Each structure stands twice: as structure tokens, then as C-alpha cells.
Amino acid sequence: MGSWECRCLELLRTIVSPTTHSQGTSIFTVYEAASQEGWVFLMYRAIDSFPRWRSYFYFITLIFFLAWLVKNVFIAVIIETFAEIRVQFQQMWGSRSSTTSTATTQMFHEDAAGGWQLVAVDVNKPQGRAPACLQKMMRSSVFHMFILSMVAVDVIVAASNYYKGENFKRQYDEFYLAEVAFTVLFDLEALLKIWCLGFTGYISSSLHKFELLLVIGTTLHIYPDLYHSQFTYFQVLRVVRLIKISPALEDFVYKIFGPGKKLGSLVVFTASLLIVMSAISLQMFCFVEELDRFTTFPRAFMSMFQILTQEGWVDVMDQTLNAVGHMWAPVVAIYFILYHLFATLILLSLFVAVILDNLELDEDLKKLKQLKQSEANADTKEKLPLRLRIFEKFPNRPQMVKISKLPSDFTVPKIRESFMKQFIDRQQQDTSCLLRRLPSASSSSCDHSKRSAIEENKYIDQKLRKSVFSIRARNLLEKETAINKILRACTRQRMLSGSFEGQPAKERSILSVQHHIRQERRSLRHGSNSQRISRGKSLETLTQDHSNTVRYRNAQREDSEIKMIQEKKEQAEMKRKVQEEELRENHPYFDKPLFIVGREHRFRNFCRVVVRARFNASKTDPVTGAVKNTKYHQLYDLLGLVTYLDWVMIIVTICSCISMMFESPFRRVMHAPTLQIAEYVFVIFMSIELNLKIMADGLFFTPTAVIRDFGGVMDIFIYLVSLIFLCWMPQNVPAKSGAQLLMVLRCLRPLRIFKLVPQMRKVVRELFSGFKEIFLVSILLLTLMLVFASFGVQLFAGKLAKCNDPHIISREDCHGIFRINVSVSKNLNLKLRPGEKKPGFWVPRVWANPRNFNFDNVGNAMLALFEVLSLKGWVEVRDVIIHRVGPIHGIYIHVFVFLGCMIGLTLFVGVVIANFNENKGTALLTVDQRRWEDLKSRLKIAQPLHLPPRPDNDGFRAKMYDITQHPFFKRTIAVLVLAQSVLLSVKWDAADPVTVPLATMSVVFTFIFVLEVTMKIIAMSPSGFWQSRRNRYDLLVTSLGVIWVILHFALLNAYTYMMGACVIVFRFFSICGKHVTLKMLLLTVVVSMYKSFFIIVGMFLLLLCYAFAGVVLFGTVKYGENINRHANFSSAGKAITVLFRIVTGEDWNKIMHDCMVQPPFCTPDNSTYWKTDCGNYAGALMYFCSFYVIIAYIMLNLLVAIIVENFSLFYSTEEDQLLSYNDLRHFQIIWNMVDDKREGVIPTFRVKFLLRLLRGRLEVDLDKDKLLFKHMCYEMERLHNGGDVTFHDVLSMLSYRSVDIRKSLQLEELLAREQLEYTIEEEVAKQTIRMWLKKCLKRIRAKQQQSCSIIHSLRESQQQELSRFLNPPSIETTQPSEDMNAVNQDNSAQPETSSQQQLLSPTLSDRGGYRQDSADAGKPQRKFGQWRLPSAPKPISHSVSSVNLRFGGRSTMKSVVCKMNPMSDAASCGSEVKKWWTRQLTVESDESGEDLLDI
After folding, report:
1. Which of the chain's termini has less CB crowding within 10 Å, N or C?
2. Across-strand partners of 819?
3. What pLDDT is recorded for position 299?
């Protein structure tokens, strides 16, 4: 105790970093943490002051929501906005084009016919004076490959350069001589090309210009005075020529950097922004004392560039705030935060948007690629996997089947002899007639029969031709064609004008517009007839008709191509099945697990049942076949996600991972029997699972084998590793040994869940399916790193070393020891007594490189640049290079950071987003197709309002309803919520007297919200209030507020204040649903979280695997600069927190270097790894670099891709959206009116009522679009066979009807939808005709009944006269009686109806009547009613020769002569029926429009 003394430390508030003591500083602190810069140190401070779980929960959720979700919404906004304005800048930037050869160009050439065409011109065509042999050699591929191989050798030699010591003569070493040799070689190459092509032809190629620049620069570089100078850039840039080796890489580079106007304009804009902001900052802060960051323009530029890259930007802001003082600190903080916000969220997002735009394809190319991709998918399905095709190499050995009966034992079904005889006689007769073609006496009968048949056919054909092509038929056809043309022209004119003649102009609904577009296209199907009448048309009309016909033919061609692809897919699938069946028949060991168990063995069937058993709770309606929605369908879907066996293994794997969480270097599984239990359980259960699956599906050589993909290989690998470790269980595990490697491989166990869950497999597929593009980006970044690493080795090798004593300059003086002072922190000042020195200790002087990086060889240089590429530690590299080499060399690191950050990292983001879209099938979608997919996704999310209707009466409930639904009431509640949230601007401390008034005001607000909920419950009723999720949330928060009020007045302590603050925060989130824009952003975040759930779970599983491996590799590493009591790998829990910190990029490189510590800076132990505190250099390098690339560069960018995709669902302008938010809202309101039970389903007959209520863009005008209305109603009827329809069923139907399906739907979906609409049209047409005929027959029956009643009344008075008239062979006419005339006069006085059709419909019963009359000839009992009249009885006047009939008020009269001869031929009745049907089909009725709609 005598040598230690406690001292007081002065901690001034002016030098402390911003904390959360007040509302203003807390906002700055939260923003700094959200920028992922310095947040972990804030969390460590909170851990030291508060419970650990609270600090972890607060900061991890802050990073997840603000840094990963909300921040990426900015990227989505920029990408969508950039896509909108892209069309405006298309003319300036130029259209996209495919990769073209740099050695070819095109020019116009006149052909033989006098036309002009583009002809490719080869610029490599010999234009020089070189001999032909040299020109041929220069154009050969061997010469190009030789040059590229020499470039590769030059790059390898340059990369092999390293620092050999201070005394080594560097001017004329072997690397210099090699560089001279390569420079001479490439100079000769350039001279040869100039000789062969000529100087003009040589410099016409961009590639040759670049080669000439390299030749000039490298030639100057080999000059001794310029060697190892800035001309080294020309030497290292030769590696860019290697891009020509890979065509895929060349095409990818051209996609990204080929259209250089967009990317170049953005780079110029970024540089201009930096210059302008640096100048402004220089003028603002150059006068501030004790602030050296803005004294000169270069320093100001470096500071603003540092803020742009987010590395240490908080230090820049804090130093400036401390220097300017408290008065100007808020203004300066706002200045830096606004600049950081614009630079990091908007500017970097613009780079991502530009790269995505460069990767985008043209609309026509997208459709072409859709066809090609569908065709390629059809080709790939035709072949069996290679593991199954191996059976084709063996000879066929089909198995013999033993049958119990012979073919003669089977019974032959009895067939009628007459039935078989007609086919035999017909076949013999046809054969004899065909063989005996020559005229002969024996064939006269056959020829006679043939002649008679031919003559009869000719007679029938002529009769038919007369009936079809008569003058009347031709006139009708011409009239019909002309009328159709006029109707189409009128329809087009009304569509353009938006109004009908005689009616006020009205905007047509999108349903009506799309319906008429469909009708116009279908009218083109019958355009062949209409093309005959083209006289009298203008040239414009003819051109328009021709263009419509061309569009239809193109669409028809596309349909045929799609159908061919579908047929090809079906044929490929059939071929695949046929191949599999042939292998099954010809090879007895095919589809036999382990070549032992039979195909249909009972044990195998039992294993199949066990393996494939799963939960299925979907109940179907036995009548309609529709799936019924259950109450807990989401839970049931989750249970049915995988099989029962997979659920068991998921639970076992999770339990095993939990057991591994308790392992540490000090509590190992080898020495802890309780931890071994989970190990045994996992191995036993996995053994049972694999045996069952192998017996059911086979191991490898079966169609559904266990090892059929990478997931099966991973399962077997994890099982073998676990089994070997369980059997071995090593007691001593030396460091860097095979046993430690086995323990590291055992840490891959959580990856089993990737295989067991289908959605997790989808995540892995999305991760690796775009591996090609990610690999190309990695090659580009490695190329960039190699260029700068080679340059850094030649310029900075050995120059970054320095003596650790700051007073020593030269290496010769760096020896001995010196005293180093110790300081607790740079912000803590220790008061010293007069003459007293600061505490410290003596250390030896050492001349060494910086601890974390050097440029002595290419490997160390690339590692340093990789760390810089992650934007971590680059400020230290810059400061060291400037301090030890020179300020001019700071340009080197700034250029690399700009290229790596602005282009390299954003290129990763763009490629991952593009691959995600391609895997989701949206990369090749056109703009209209993408909007349609967004609309479908948005409609899936849409739900009914669940808002009860207003009460019918005007009582108290109705008034409450009007008040609660008034916009002023809702805005008032939102203002009150904001006012209550302002109360949290001051910390609620129990000891602070200000807290009591604040809590009292919060109590008042709580009672107001209780009153709001009460009013809504009264207005809507309790059941109606509970239907809305927002109301449920408000009720929950209000209930918590009431509970808090009770506890507050009862306890009045710190916990109640904390609960009150939490209630206010929960209340604040309710305001997001009260505004459209906030609701849109909230939905984007929520849906992104829902859709990215499995990606987040995948990230956590990877994190868990790396955490387990980190405990094994670095669990005992000594504390260093960043490995400390908060951040270490001593347990799995702490390892997870460290890895989460690395995901955010917070000093991950320093943690890696701490884990690389080697002797003599640590204590090694060769017996066991848990007794040493040394690290693992190679293990740390692979561990941290792989983790950072996979998580930070790929997995996090998948989150960006999901947010960008979901943002487009809710973000759309009025021009782009297919169905707007107002349309959906209007439909929800109408549905809420029709669905009175609030069940989400309505009967089919109510759909007609719902469609009539729609207004606006979804309105169906019954006066103009009756047919559309009937189509929509029938589509809903046939959906569930007349059953109830759901909210989404009707909304989906409206969405299909409101878009142009030709533009919006993809190929397969388009064909299916068009087929459905054609079917609906045919069925509606049949139904309309059927209904019309039924109504006509109904009217006829009604008239017949009335006619029969009249005749029955006249029968008694005229019985004798009728009996006298029935005896002769023909009817004798008589004068009508007075009674009949009276009836006729009464009927004639009735008003005329609207019928304009004369109907005289003989029915099938007439034939029976005629037959009965012929059978009962001479009998007086004859009945009337052989003609059915269509409407009410009309005036009938009898004459001697005719009967005059008036139908439906017609002024025309028809003469009907009724020959009542009982022996008349029945054919006359058939001819009358035929004439009647012809009349119905040719004459148009005015009542048909009345019958089209039957509701």
C-alpha cells in the first residue's frame, strides 16, 4: 500500500463525448451509433453502468432497425427515383447496347438493289506496309495468347518484389532487369502493330490507345532516375490487359464501365461536391484555434473526404465541436450531420443506382431473354442426372415377370356381331372399290354405287353453296362487315374522346378501357373478312388497320413460340420419365437403396411413410373443392412446413447447439459428462434419420437419393465429423493440430438447419446462384488491389518503419531504452504536483513497421489494402504514409479508397441486388411486368378494413361514430400523441422535482386516450372495435397506460417512471398508421422484416458457427488493443457479440491483428490449446476475412435487395401505379359495406351488387360495358363452382381486368389468362343465348296458354262447326263469330309492346302431334296448340285463305296457311323448324339488349 496512492481526476464536461443526458445530445449520440461508427464503445460504457441485457438489447436493436433497415430504405428511394428520371437522361447518356468488339466498326454501304445497309468493317484489316507474313502473325490467336501470357508473367514478377533491407542496392536488381526486358518486348509489340495497321488504323481502337499509353509510360519508367517513382503506375496497370483473357469478365466490365457517361458524371459530381464543401469548411473553421484539420485546403479536403467514407468522422466532428465552444456547437453538429447524411445515404446510393442501371437490360431484350430462358429450362429437364445415367453404360438386363395365367385363360368380352360386322363389311367394300379402279363388267355394281354417291354429294354440295353464297347471304356478310368496321371506328373514337354521343364527357374507368382494348384485339382475329371492304378509306385509316394487324400477328407469333416452349417442356419431361422408366425396366438394381432393398419392399414403404409424413390441416370443401381458411392457418402452415422427422431433427439440432453454447476453453466437452449427453443424443438421432432416409430414398444412385445435391453432402459430412469426434473424444488437443481442426469442423453443426428447412435452402441457393457475378466482382477488386499493392511495394517498402522513441529520427540512433509515459485516457487530465513526472516505465528502443500494416511485400500490402477497402483503418495508413514518406503520397491512399469505396463496394451491392432479382425472376421483367408483380404482392398484403358501418339511426352511437371518424378528431389525437412524446425530452428521475409534473401531464394524456377508446367502442360496438388491428393495439397501449397510472400513484418509484416512459414510446408508434407516407415506410420496414426473416436466421446460424469456431481458435488469446474484457472469445455468448460488432465493421481489423499475436509477445504451449495465450496467424486471416466478406459484403446486401424490392410495392407515382392507394381504399370501403358479417367472404350473388357500387377508376358502366359486367360475374361464379368468394378473389379479378395483360403478364401467365378469358366469353355467350331462348319460350308458352283458354271458350259454341271442318282432307274456312271479333277488338285496344321480332316457333311436340293425327285419321277428337305463340294473344282475323296474326304490336302481317291434313309429311315440320332457326340467327331483335343482363 505504501507505493500506491489514490489521486483525484478532473473530468470536465467540455471534453466528454456527447452522451444521452439531454434530448439534443441523445439525438446526436443515436445518429452516431446508427452510422456504425463508435457505437460499440458507447455500448461498453452502458454495460459498465447498466445491466448487461439492457445495453445489448438497446444497441443491437438500434443497429438493426436504424443502420440496416431504415438506412437501406434511402438506397431504395434513390434507386426508384433514379429509375424514374432515367428516361429523361436517356438521350444524354445514350441507350444501352450489347458488348461490341472494339476492333470492329460499322458503316453504310450501298447494295446491288440500290438500298443502304450497315456493314461491319474490320479495323484490323492490313493498312500498313508490313509483309503479309507479319500481318498474318499479328492477327493470329497464338500471337495474342503469347502477349497475354507475357503480361501475366510480368504481373507475377512484379508481385514477387519485396523489401530486402536498407543496404541492398535496388537500382539494378533482378526485378529491374526483368522490367527492362518486358518493357522492350511490349514496345516491340506496339511497333509491330503500328507497322501492320498503320498509325491511323492503330490509334482508332480504344484498346490500342491504352496500350500505347502504357508503352510510353513504362519506357519512361525504366529510366534510372524515374524508377520507383510515380511512373510505376504505368507498370502495374499492365494487369488490366489480362481482362481480355476471359470473355465473361470482359463483358461484365463493359456492362459496368462501358457506358461511362453516367458513372463519369457521378464521379465528377462527387469530386465537385468535395471541393465545394472543403472550401466552405475552410472558410468556416480556419480561424478556430487549436484545430489543425481545416488550416489549409488539402487538410480540409482530407477531413471532408474522411467524413464521406465514415471512417473516424465522429472524431472530426467532436474535435471541431470542442474547438468552437458551446455556443456554436449545435450549429456545427447540424452542419456535419447534414453533410454526412447527404454523402453516405444519397451520394453512395446514387452509385448503387447507376451500377444497377448499367446492369439493366432493354425491354425487348428482356422479353427475348425470357423466351431463351424458358427454352433453356426445357432443355435442362430433358436429361437425367449423371449419377443416374451411369446405368446406361451397363448392358440391359430386364427382369422376367411371372404371371399366373396365360393369355388364353383371360376372358374375352362379348361384342355384338352386328357391331363388328359393319366395320368388316365397310372395310371389304372400301378395299374392293380401291383395288378395282379399272372399268370392268364385274365392277359395274361398285362403280354404279360410287357414281350415285358422287352425284348425290355434288347435288348436296351445289345446294349448300347456293344456300350459303346466295345474293342475300353475300349482302348480309357485307353489311355485317361494314357495320363491324363502323362500330370499331366509333368505339375507337369514343375511347379517344372519353364520351359517348349525346352524353356529357366522362372519364372512363380502367376496367372499361382495358375491356375495349381486349375487344379491339379480338376483332383483329376476324380482320381477314374486314380487309375485303377497304374502298373509300383514308390512307391514315388503312395504315392504322395495317399496324393493328401487324401487332396482332406479332402477338400471335409470340403465342406460338410460347406454346412451342411449353410443348418442349412437356416433351422434355416425358422424355425424362421415359428414360427413367426404361432404366427401371432394364436394370434390376436401379432405384434400389444400397442395391439391396427392393423397390416395393414393405420395409422401404414403411420408411417412406415415416420420412414423408407431415402435418396437413388444409380442409377442402367436398362440393366446390376450395380450401377452407382455418382460424390458426398460419400456425398450421408452419407445422406443415417440413415433415415430422425433420421437425424432430430441427429440435435435436437446436438442443445440441444450445449445449455447445456452454462449452468454453475452461469447460470442455471432453471433460464435462453433462455436455456429452447432447452429443450422444445428436449422433443417435442423426443415425436413425439417415438410415430411414437412405432406406426410403437411397444413398446416391437413386432418383431421390440423400446425396443428390450439396445439402446431402453437407449432412453426411456433419454426421461423419460428429461420429468421429464422439468415438475419439481427444483429451489433449494441441494447438494447430488435427484434433483442433476436427473441433473446428464440428462447429458446422448449426448448418444442418439450412438443409432441413426449405426456405433456408432457398437462401443458400440465392446466395450461391449468383456466384459467377460475385466472383467477377471479386476478381476486379483483387485486380485493383494488386495494382495498388505492387505500386505500394515499389514506393513504400521499408519506408514506413520508425523508432518507437519519437525523439529518434535515424535508425542508427534507435538503440537503448527510453521512458514512456502512461495515460489513462486522452480526455482525462491528472493533476501533478510541482516537479512531479507523469507515471510511466522504461522500454527498449525498436526500429519497426507499424503494428497492423506494412508494404514490405505484396502479401502484406494486399492485406493492408483489403482492410482499407473495408474503410477500416485507412486513416491510420494515410497519416503514416504522409508522415513518413511525404504529403504527396497521400494521393495514393485517397485514390484507392475512392475507387474501392465508391465503385468497388457499391459494385458488390449492385451485383448482389441484381442477382437477387434474377433469382426471384424479376431481373428480366419489363417495366410493366414489374409493376404487375408489385401490384400482386401489394394486393396480397391488403386486407379488409374491418370498419363497422355507421349505425342506421341518428342516435347517440351514430353521433359518436361521426365524431370518431371525423378527420379533425384523428388529427387532434395525433397532435396529443406528439405532445405526450415531447414529455420524454427530459429524463424522468425519481429524485428530480421536475419529473412529478411531467408524470402528471402524462396521466392527463392517458385519460384522454381512455376517453378516445371509450368513444370508439360506443360508436363501433365492442365486436366492431375489436376487428381492427390498429384498435387492438390502441386498446393494449391504453390498458398499459391505465395500469401504469394505478402503479404510479401506488408506488411512485423509479420503476414506475420507467414503465411510464415505455408506455409513451409504445403510444408514439401508433402515429405511424395515421399518415399515408409514414404508413408506407412502416409497411416497407415490416414487410422487409417478414420477408427477410429466413435471411436473418441464416445470418445468425453463420454467426453461431463462427462463434463456436472462434471459441476453439481464439478462446485463450491474451488481451490486446481491442481484445479486452468486453470483446473476447472466451465463451460463445461473448463471441457472438464480438462477431456482431465485426458485422458492423467496427475495428474488425484490429481484433484480427490481436488474434494474430505470436511469440515472443505471448506464451506458447504445445500440449493443449487452452493453456496458451497465443493466437493463430493463418487461422485468424482466413477466419476474419471470410466472415467479413460473407456477412458484410453478401448477406447484408441481401437485406438491401429485399428492402429495395419491397419499397417498390408501396412507392409509386400516379403515372406508374396500376391500382393506386385510393383505388384500393375505395374497394375496401365498398367491400366493408357488402361484407356485413366481417368474415372476409361473401356469397357469389353479392359480387354483382359490389361491382355496381364501385366508382372511379374501378367503375363498371352498365350502359356501356354490360358484357364486361357479365364476364366479371361469371368469372367469380366459376372460381369456386358457385361458392363464396374472398376479398382477395374479387380484388385479383379486378386487377387482372384493369391491366393490359399483353404488356404486364409474363409468358406462361399470359397464355393461361387469355385462355381463361376466352373460355369465359364463350360460356357467357352460350349462357346469354340460352337465357334469351328461355325467355322467348316462356313468352311463347304464356301466349299459348292464353290462346288455349280463348279456344277452349270458343270450343263449346263452335263444336259442331269444327267437327264439320275436320272431316274433309283440308280445312274449310268460315267467318269468325261475333264473340271472336269482340275478343279481337279487346286485344287490339291493348298497347303495343317493344317487341320487333315475329316469332312462330314450332316445337318438338308438333311432330308428335302430326304423328298422332296420322295415326288417328278420321277421329274427331283433335287438340289445338300445335303452334306456340311468343307473347300475349293478339287480334286474330280469319279469312278463307289466311290467318292474320299481330305479334307484340307489329304492324306487319304474316300470312300463315295451315294445312291440317293428317296425312301430311313430317318433313314439312322439319323445314318449318329450320326456317324458324334461320330467322332467329339472321334477324336481330331489339329485345336482346334487355335480355343480356339478368341480375
Report:
1. N
2. 842
3. 92
Residues whose CB falls within 8 Å of the CB of residue 316, separated by 6 or more in sequence, listed in order: 293, 303, 306, 307, 336
Question: How far is residue 74's CA from residue 1200's CA, in Å, rounded to a whole number?
Answer: 10
Phi-psi group of 814: left, alpha or beta (phi > 0 → left; psi -120 to 50 → alpha; rest → beta):
beta
- C-alpha–C-alpha distance, residues 351 and 907, integer Å: 8
Phi, psi dihedrals of residue 836, rounded to the nearest 5°: -90, 140
Q: Which cell numbers in the block locate residue 112?
A: 446491288
CA distance 393 to 397: 12
Give tens-digit pLDDT for 914-973.
777 777 666 677 777 778 887 887 788 788 877 777 887 778 888 898 899 888 998 899
∠ at Cα 37 (31, 43), nearest 5°?
A: 80
C-alpha 502/C-alpha 520 separation (Å) is: 23
CA 1315 to chain centre: 26
The 10s digit of each residue's pLDDT in 1363-1385 is: 666 665 544 444 444 444 444 44
| Pick from 707, 722, 77, 640: nearest CA to 352 | 77
CA gap 158, 235 in Å, rounded: 9
∠ CA 1293-1299-1305, rounded to 5° = 90
Residue 547 has pLDDT above 70, yes or no: no
Which burial class, exposed, middle or buried, applies to 1233 when counting CB atoms under 10 A from its CB (0-12, 13-18, 19+)?
A: middle
Helix residue ranges, H only, 698-770: 710-728, 738-746, 752-756, 758-769
Inter-residue contact 1020 to 1232 (CB < 8 Å): no
pLDDT at 1011: 95
Phi, psi of 1090 (to 5 degrees): -65, -45
DSSP label of 240: G
Identity of residue 1099:
M
**Range with the poorest average pLDDT among 406-420, 931-945, 1127-1141, 1268-1282:** 406-420
CB 956 within 8 A of CB 1043: no
H or E element at residue 339: helix 329-341
Per DSSP, helices labelled H in 160-295 are 174-203, 206-221, 232-236, 247-257, 260-285
Band of the pLDDT at 374, cuts 50, 70, 90? low
Condensed to tens digits (0 to 9), the pLDDT of residues 158-181 reads 888 887 776 655 556 788 888 899
Does residue 950 come out as left (phi exceeding 0), alpha (psi in the -120 to 50 range) or beta?
beta
pLDDT attached to residue 709: 86
Q: How many helices (H) and strands (E) does the chain have?
A: 60, 15
- The per-residue pLDDT of the chain, averaged, comes to 75
Distance (Å, rounded) from C-alpha 885 to C-alpha 882? 6
CB within 8 A of 727, min separation 6: which ones? none
DSSP for 1234-1265?
Answer: H-TT-SSEE-THHHHHHHHH--GGG---TTT-
* pTM of this structure: 0.74
Query: For residue 1009, what pLDDT is reported?
Result: 93
Contacts of 477 (CB under 8 A, 6+ apart): 529
- Distance, in Å, from the CA atom of 971 to the CA atom of 1322, rounded to the nearest integer, reads 52
Q: How far apart are CA 513 and CA 519, in angstroms?
A: 10
* Grid cell at residue 148: 497475354
d(CA 610, CA 67): 46
Lookup result for grid cell 427413367: 580
pLDDT tens digits for range 1053-1107 = 888 888 999 999 889 888 776 666 667 667 777 777 777 788 888 889 999 999 9
Contact 559, 1311 (CB under 8 A): yes
Cell of 531: 380487309
Residue of 1216, 1293, 1222, 1215 lying closest to 1257 (CA atoms) = 1222
